[in-house]
Each structure stands twice: as structure tokens, then as C-alpha cells.
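Provenance and format

Records in this collection were gathered into a single text stream. Each protein contributes a sequence line and a C-alpha cell line. The two records reproduced below are adjacent in the stream.
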Amino acid sequence: MPSFENFKPFIVTGLSLGGVYALSGTGVVVLFRATGVLNLAFGAIGAMGALISWALINHTGTNQYVAYAACIGFGAVCTLLYGLTVGRFLAARDALVKAVGTLGLALILLGFMDWFWPPKSRSMFLPTTNYGYQIGIVHVTWTQIIGLAFGVAVTIGTGAFLRFTRLGTAMRALAADREITATLGVPVRRVEAMAWLGSGVLSGAAGLLLSDLVALDAVTLTFLVISSLAAALIARLSSLTVTLIAGIVIGLVDALITPILSISAYRDMTPFVLATIGLLWISRRRVVTVGRAGA
């Protein structure tokens, strides 16, 4: 077992990744609550946006900040277009059809990325990576700080938005009952479009951060959505606070397993194991509550 000193750098890594997982989980939860669609293409959209940003910087000489904006813009436009064209036909379908529809989008984007950017070593470092703080033996970059802080800020900001704004109230109403909300005069299509747009913005931001924190690889970034989905599932696709906590826990556990050689090879199982444990614990509490009520 490594000493505590060996774990310190991985604590920082885990917190930063956990923040981004929470950020992504928030995008998944908000879209699901507004439209009922579980967006399995979230990671692929962010990955393609990051690769577009990399190509603009390295092959066209585009200003890096313009390229970063292009990454977020691609996520927003791609997700919005999918929501306006395909997503609206999924509204009345069952949950399995909705999930498979976005899985198809993920596979299409993976195919495009493999075609335009064949697998090879690539890297993209944000300007914030060059600056940071030294805490003992651990160097903490501003990218890592932003990863955690942005995840927390987005979660709190989204919660406030859903609670205190008219559009947020409409999204919560859609989650409760789509048909009744429509009969009350709420522009359902417009509200759903805004949910798709917001989720796409978060997808692009997550892809940009993860391309620096993890790697600029299409497959890796696409399947990192599993950790975000695990956080959202632990929150039962409803609580943003639980999504934040779950995302940070998943990031920490995943990172802290890395230096333990005996089990590090199984670290990819972390989100599945934690999601299973979390859901079993929540189900246990619900069963106990029902049992007591019935007694």
C-alpha cells in the first residue's frame, strides 16, 4: 500500500475530475428532467468539440480562445440541432427508445472522429495549465481548480435557475407532467430546445476541460460520460446536489485507486460499482420507508 504522500497528487486529480463529472452529470440531469431523454452522446459531443478546437489551433492558426469557443459552440449547436430534429420525435416514446436514439448519435460522432482524426497521440493544454500553486509536494494547476470550481458553480447556478426563473419553472413542470404543462400554455418545444442547448454548452465545456485533464482521445473522452451517468443515476436523475457529491466521490475514488497497483487495473469499474452501491442503498431506504408506512 502506498504512503499517504503518494496519494496527495491523486486527491487533487480526483477533485478536479469529480468537478467535471458533476458538471456533465448536471447537463444530463437537466436534459432528462425537461425532455425525458438520457443523452448517451454527451461525451462524444464534447470529444468532437475538443478535437475541432485542437485542429483549429494546430492546422489553421486560429486564436486559441476562438478555438475554445468553437468547442463549446459545436456542443451547443450539435445538441440543439439533434433536439430540434430527432429529439422532438422522441418525446412521446418510451425511455429505452430515447436512450438508443442518443446512443446512435454517439456512434455516428465516433465514426466521424475516427475518420477525420485517426487514433494517434494528441494533446491540448489550456493556458490555465501553465499557472498554479505549490501545496507541499503537490502542484495544483488552475485547470484543476477550474474543473472543481466550475462543477460546483454550475450545479449551484443551475439549481437556482430551475428554482427561481420562469424558464426553470417551466422545465420543472415538464418533468412533472408534459401534457398538463402544454395545456397551461407553456411553449413546450421552446423550453425543450433551451434544455438541449444548455446541455450542449455543458458538453462542450466538459470536453474542453477533460481534453486537458485526461487526454485528447475520442474514445476516452466519449466513454468518460459513464462516470457522469453514474453520478446522475445515483442522484436518480433528479437531485443536482446528489449529482455533485456523487461526481466528486467517483472522481476521487477513481483517482485514488491509481497508485494501488494490486487493483489499479480495475479502476474503470469504479463508476459501475459506485452507482450499483448507491442505487442499492437508496432502494433499501425506500423499501424500509414503505414497509413502515404499511405497518
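Adjacent record:
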Amino acid sequence: MGVVGRQFGLPSGPLGRIVGRFMVRGNADLNRWIVREIARRVSSPAVVVDIGCGPGVGLAALLDAYPTARVIGVDPSATMCAQARRRNRRAIEAGRLIVVHGDARDVADAAPVDVVVAVHVLYFLHEPQDDLRPVTRLLAPGGTFAVGYHIRRHMPPVAQRDFPAVGHRLYDSDDAVTAVLAAAGLATDEVRVLGDPEHPGGRLLLARPAA
């Protein structure tokens, strides 16, 4: 009990590498859709940060969408950082991308940031109000915070069981996510849903620093 929750929260070792491959298969469509939706809102950001970048599929989509932007990926898992670097090696060599082992606090010097993305990260913030404040400080005035997630009832049964067993947080509604962001100084603009609302491929909440 809890192995799935621990590995998805912080992939490591051989099992972590398998989790990374699962993330590529399971989350690629959501990552790419989220980047397309962000691109409709923000046309030419100078700096983009992907918090919890995982195996780097979202980074690849951001690099394609924003060929002139400085892109930064950050993840607390060394295993995921290694996969992200391999997947986006050419962009790193070209100086378009850096991947940092850590969290939002470790890329504070990138501020002000036009766009911060966090896909399937919210569950693993055990103190979300505190953990999100460094994100708020990263954002430029009027910057965009794009949060990709599922609410509890749309998550796989194993995640609904194992995530809470190791202290991860699940959310029962968009309002619950909005409230957590508000406590961290972020104002929600809208929530978009990928696909059928009864069986969605994911959700996207777009927020900005509160006035």
C-alpha cells in the first residue's frame, strides 16, 4: 500500500524510471493540450518555467510553442530530471532549456516569469499554501500560472487509494483548487476541461498573481 503514491510523488530508482515512462504515455496528451491553451492566452513569453516537469514531454511542447522563450524545467526527482534532459538534449545544447533538480525556490532567480506551468503537481504539495507562495513570487505582474490536474473522482482508482495513504492531497472540486491558490496569492481566471466533462482527459486552471 502506498508504493504508487510514493513513486508518483518522487520517482526514484528502477521503479521510478518505469513511472517516468508511464507518465509519458499517460500525460502527453494533457501536457500538449495545456500548452496549446496557454499559447492562446500568452503569445510570446520571454521566460517559461515548468514546475514538476517530470520526464520532459511538457518541456518539449513548450519549446515547440515558444521558440524564442527561455524555458526552465524543475523537478524534485533526479530520475525525472535525467529523463527530461535526455528527451530535450538538443534544446539544452542550444542554450534554450535548463533543467534544475529542486522546486520553485531553486529557480527564484528566473523571476519575473511570464508563464509558470504545473501539471499533475498539486497533489504532491502537502502544504500547498506555503509551497505555492514561491510560485507566486516567481510570476511577473499579470503573469500566467497554468495548473493541470484531475479532481478526485476522475483519477484512477489506484491513485485515489494510494495517494492519500502517503499524505498526498486530492481535490473534490475546482472550487477547492481555487481556494488553495487564493490562499497563496493567486487569482483564478478560468477552468477549462479536456474532452467530455464526465470523463475528462484533465483540467486546466489559469490563474495570475492577485492584485
